[in-house]
Amino acid sequence: MSVDAAAIIVAITTAAGAIVQGADIPQPVKDQAAEAIQVVEQASPDVQKQVNDAISTLPEPARVQAEQMVAQASDVVKQATDPYIPPPPAVEAAPPPAPVPPLALPDTPLDQPPAMSAPDVGTAIGGLAALPGVPALISGLGSLIPSVPAGFPGVSLAPVGAIAVFAPWIRKAGSLCEGIKPPTLAALYSVENGFRYGANSPVSRAGARGPGQFMPPAWAKYGKDADGDGKVDINGVADPMMASGQMLCDLFGQIEGWKKEGVVKGDTLDLTIAAYNAGAGAVRTAGGMPAGKFDYEHETQPYVARIRSLEESFARMLSPFFYGAAAGDTSRVVEAAMRFIGLPYVWGGGNINGPSGGGFDCSGLTSFAVYAATGVKLPRTSETQWHVGVEVPLSQARPGDLLFGNWQSGGPGHVAIYVGNGQMLHAPTTGDVVRIGPVFADMKARRVF
């Protein structure tokens, strides 16, 4: 079975998150989520054993909660998709569930955390990212993921797992040169190592390491401290992604030069990806796509074809992260907040320096994101932030503008960051996590710088 990291997670959370947030789920997403669950349910004993093994490696509290959440996620997706799956002859499909209207959420904690129920699983899955050992679980699931397209713009996503962590760096690395775009980088990392990162990231039989699967000579040349944390981390996120972007750009330029000299033929991007896998020398010697050896025929060529086939799916998956890419400083507000998707809501949490008490509340998140992107210090509450900047019509809101809702006598009780296409990034309420969701009906927009 061909598998792609992050696809089943996004397929499940796309459907579950949409239910939570009352959004319509496009028919392709319903079909793909249903297919993902069906593939897992019909998997061989070996595949099921891998799932169990991945979960069993977690610490006890995380293991129990992960088992519950994965099971509940499957139930939610089945509830969302079963009514739309064509029934066998003479069997009438159940009517679709009624949409859940979006709620106006307060900037204060609820008296009690909401009880866990099936529609709450979109939130629960987001919370997985904050549990000890769960990145390892997500990595383990990456090796079991069916090849389904993974998300559409306009759908209410509850992104979890590594794709949310990698997204800002995918965009940055995908802007280094004209020939290498973000969807290609995302597809390559899915095929290379399933977005698995960190100290326990697998090492290939040949000794390639990290999410970019760098061999020592290539890492010595391209590995740099991209995120300014004082380390050059082959198992990290920023450093390997930027190294991959630069290496691919160099290979792309080299192959373009060879094509002009008439020594190689073929699609430049195809040959660039082949060179990433087999080395530029293999492309040069073959005069194009490497062929004639077992590894080239059974590894390099399928590797190239697989990455190219996934580009469109990853372009759709990444689109919620890339709204406002040309909006200047405002897009950096979105990017700053995007780093914290999956972090728990904590009343009174967060300020210009980052999360506190383990998370953010809504105005703590906006305070941090605006300050990190622009240096502008906002007042601490949603009511006082409303008085900064100028109001703009909601129809004219740009990514990075602030959105205010849950209007009360003292002003707005909730604040969020607009990301585009009718979506906002926010810390909703107690028991929830930082996530992307649809803009509430009563919201007003404000441009604060």
Automatic annotation (TrEMBL):
Supply the PROSITE patterns for this chain: NLPC_P60 (PS51935)
- Keyword Hydrolase in annotation: yes
Q: Which GO terms describe its biological process?
A: proteolysis
Q: Which residues form the NlpC/P60 domain?
A: 327-449
User: Per its UniProt record, what InterPro entries does this chain match?
Assistant: Lysozyme-like_dom_sf (IPR023346), NLP_P60_dom (IPR000064), Papain-like_cys_pep_sf (IPR038765), PG_Endopeptidase_C40 (IPR051794), SLT_2 (IPR031304)
Query: Under the GO molecular function aspect, what terms does this record hold?
Result: cysteine-type peptidase activity
Record keywords, A-Z: Hydrolase, Protease, Thiol protease
Per the record, the similarity remark reads: Belongs to the peptidase C40 family.
Protein name as catalogued? Lytic transglycosylase
Its source organism is Rhodococcus opacus
Q: Identify the taxonomic lineage of the organism of origin.
A: Bacteria, Bacillati, Actinomycetota, Actinomycetes, Mycobacteriales
